[in-house]
Amino acid sequence: MYQKIFSGKTDVGLKRENNEDAFIVSPEMDFCLAADGMGGAAAGELASRIFVDTALEIFSKNTNHSEEQILFLIQKAFSFANEKILEHVTKNPEHEGMGCTAELLAFSDDGFVLGHVGDSRTYRVRNGFLEQLTEDHTLVQQQLDEGLIAHENVRNHPLRHVILRAIGLTHELTLDLVQGKIAPGDLFLLCSDGLTDMVPNDQIRDILNSDVDINQKAGKMIEAAKTAGGDDNITVVLAAII
Fold it and tell me: Who's near 11: CB < 8 A, 6+ residues apart?
């Protein structure tokens, strides 16, 4: 069984008045998450908080760390949070359109399970190489996959924030699940688009490979996003396998 070290930081950024992002790092329960609220002001903040609270409630009752059980818990967390947000909107129609994107990463003894919805992302650094484990659920990503736009046009595309999937938008939530084995030295990054819109992958890779501790790496990425403009809330969650 591998030891894990977690770190998480969030920042309102330089252009927003409130922070709609939320995160958890839980060494005790071997999981972490990052969520990015949408729907404006209090509604987006509430949506990400509903996801956080739902995941905490579900994982706190778990004592089984098998991969099958973790897979079930992740699916349950996304499904329950989705229904809770939809239920809230039914009772509070002024919050129509609220929801959140989310990354939830949990560990078994020798593997990981990742749940992903939206345009937040999860990366892994292994042997110095940065790999994006998730694919954005956005209109621009769909157009890229279909060959309608070039990769170099994605970063500044005017429609890059049109999200096709998020928690709380429809009763039929399609969840991406990624599973794999872990190895000593692996470093996982969960982040909101407030980081990836501002900081290119090669700079993220260099920070993650830098010779500082995990908390400093999280702080450096927040600062890099703010130096680049800080257009959105920025959330960074790290999980290192040692």
Answer: 19, 222, 225, 226, 230, 233, 234, 235
128: domain range?
Answer: 4-241
Q: In what order do the strands lie in the sheet with 129-132?
A: 4-11, 234-241, 187-191, 121-126, 129-132
Give the CATH number, domain containing residue 227. 3.60.40.10
Q: What is the pLDDT of residues 59-72, one digit of tens each?
A: 998 777 799 999 99
pLDDT digits (tens, 9 = 90+) for 190-230: 999 999 999 999 999 999 999 999 999 999 999 999 999 99
Residue 206 CB coordination number (10 Å): 13
If one counts the domains in the chain, the total is 1
How many Å apart are CA 203 and CA 109, to the nearest integer? 31
For the record, the structure tokens of 168 come out as 């709380």
In eight-state DSSP terms, residue 93 is: G
Which DSSP letter does residue 58 get?
H
pLDDT at position 160 over 90: no
